[in-house]
Amino acid sequence: MNYKEYIAKKIIECGLPDEGIAENIAVPPNTDMGDYALPCFKFAKVMRKSPVVIAQELAAKITPDNVIAEVLALNGYLNFKINKSSLARETVSKVLSQGESYGSSKMGEGKTICIDYSSVNIAKPFHIGHLSTTVIGGALYKIYNYLGYKVVGINHLGDYGTQFGKLICAYKKWGDKDEVEKGGIHAINDLYVRFNNEATPEMEVEAREYFRLIESGDKEANEIFEWFKSLTLDYVNKIYARLGVKFDSYNGERFYSDKMQPVIDELVEKGLLKESEGAKIVDLEPYGMPPCLILRSDGASLYATRDLAAALYRKNTYDFYKCLYVVAYQQNLHFKQIFKVLELLGKEWAKDMVHVAYGMVSLEDGAMSTRKGKVVWLEDVIEKCVEKAYKVIEDKNPALENKQDIAEKVGIGSVIFGALYNNKIKDIVFSYDKVLSFEGETGVYCQYTCARAYSVLQKACVESFNIPENINLLPQEYEVVRTLASFPEIVVEAGEKYEPSVIARFAVDLSQKFNKFYFDCKILTADDEDTKSFRLALCAATLQTLKNALALLGIGVPEKM
């Protein structure tokens, strides 16, 4: 049952205007006040009464039933207490019957969401700065799929620009095919770093010529480039597999090289393209922004040109409901410009383009350089977390079987959760010790809670759960039930806000409430069979919901830790 909709229906029957009542019903921070509350302030003007009077009149009209236990008016709020036994029975039964589908919906049926994330650069290894875009995008992909949308994950590869001419120049000058094959992406990156450190003016000219050869279809230059691309994708796909991230398209910047001219032609046709110091721009000064540079004075395209072409291609190809760009906040202006240019072109769907901005990631020892080879590679961070997880597990439970597999889930889960727990716009200082802590607001804590629930259920040796008709809930049990019941709304909220941290925080909240229940309430040694049956069912429902929540973040759950 959707309790908000049920309550909203009761309120509307009392004569209150149906103006998004269900959306305005909130969960009070203190359960003593009620399980749900409607603020009546927004109705004061329409009804010409004070919010206090409106709440009091509605409370007098709504009769408690088998769902609503009590209705209270308090300081302009209409508070509802739900029949706890009914809520517990219905929620736990629903979780256990729906299993992996609990929390999912069909709200997105028939709609497509495109998500542009990770967007790795060809011939450059992943550094830790790529972590946020990759795991935020990966989580949003799973969340929208869970909500019934058709999701298109796009890895907009950085595969266009003079840096590839520099790479070919460096390879021709210093490279060895066997060494590059053996060293892979890191061998290529070493060549690039060496070029930046040692390049002469003559080599810079040569690099520009190699890029021109790539663009003009030269066989040798393109064979080398495609080889670099293949080595890059082999490397990044191994990391994606470990992180549980997938894509449906790898169309990068180069893919749009023959799709930019129609955009330029349309800008000319609509009188939007202007000349400025030899370059071609769209003037955005009337909208409080600097000009959007479309073509340089030498006629070369830019990011904006290719992003405009990509947006048009995606709309024409996928007819998206929303198109998301999971890109760092430093690109705020760029995307504002792109969306405004599309709007000026008359594309009414420009309103459906969303920049999902996020903060930066650094390690505790400080920020990172990106060009001089002083970079913290993401695979090293993952490997270090897995190694540390193994050591922690070895210390805590040396007799545990499959320690390496468990360490993989715990280590990788800690990396993902560490990047997703805080609001995405916040900068993150990544701490190995913090993300691997068994206590506090960590993925490990949530995984350990799952292992605890698994342990209880294995000891109980039950195959099915008998949920009693009438349940006298203790406060600790009710807090778990109430949190479980909120999960479907949590998933929707995460999607609407483009914010996976909503689910990460839910997982911690549920873990904390379950652990309080676990320590305060006897489960296997409960005083009677009905109580024992319900508490075992509550363990199973918590385990299932936590697994569902963590799966949406890309985190696996070991049965033992």
In brief, what are we looking at here?
Helices cover 53% and strands 10% of the residues. The chain has 561 residues and is of the alpha/beta class.
What does this structure look like?
By secondary structure, the chain is of the alpha/beta class. The chain folds into 4 domains: 3-82, Arginyl tRNA synthetase N-terminal domain (Gyrase A, domain 2); 114-268 and 301-362, Rossmann fold (3-Layer(aba) Sandwich), CATH 3.40.50; 269-300, no CATH class; 378-553, Isoleucyl-tRNA Synthetase, Domain 1, CATH 1.10.730. It has helices at residues 3-13, 21-24, 44-47, 51-61, 84-98, 131-146, 162-174, 177-198, 201-215, 219-243, 261-269, 303-318, 332-344, 378-396, 403-420, 432-435, 443-460, 475-485, 487-496, 501-520, 529-553; strands at residues 36-39, 68-74, 77-82, 112-116, 150-154, 273-276, 279-282, 292-295, 322-328, 353-358, 361-363, 428-430. Strands 5-4-9-10 form a 4-stranded parallel beta sheet, sandwiched between helices. It has a 3-stranded antiparallel beta sheet with strand order 1-3-2. Helix 6 links the parallel strand 4 (112-116) and strand 5. Helix 7 (162-174) crosses helix 8 (177-198), helix 8 (177-198) crosses helix 10 (219-243) and helix 9 (201-215) packs across helix 10. The chain is flat, with a radius of gyration of 28 Å. Residues 369-373 have low confidence and may be disordered.
Tell me the layout of helices and strands.
Layout: H1 3-13, H2 21-24, E1 36-39, H3 44-47, H4 51-61, E2 68-74, E3 77-82, H5 84-98, E4 112-116, H6 131-146, E5 150-154, H7 162-174, H8 177-198, H9 201-215, H10 219-243, H11 261-269, E6 273-276, E7 279-282, E8 292-295, H12 303-318, E9 322-328, H13 332-344, E10 353-358, E11 361-363, H14 378-396, H15 403-420, E12 428-430, H16 432-435, H17 443-460, H18 475-485, H19 487-496, H20 501-520, H21 529-553
Parallel strand pairs: 4-5, 4-9, 9-10, 11-12
Antiparallel strand pairs: 1-3, 2-3, 6-7, 7-8
Helix pairs in contact: 5-18, 5-21, 6-19, 7-8, 7-9, 8-10, 9-10, 14-15, 17-20, 17-21, 18-20, 18-21, 19-20, 20-21
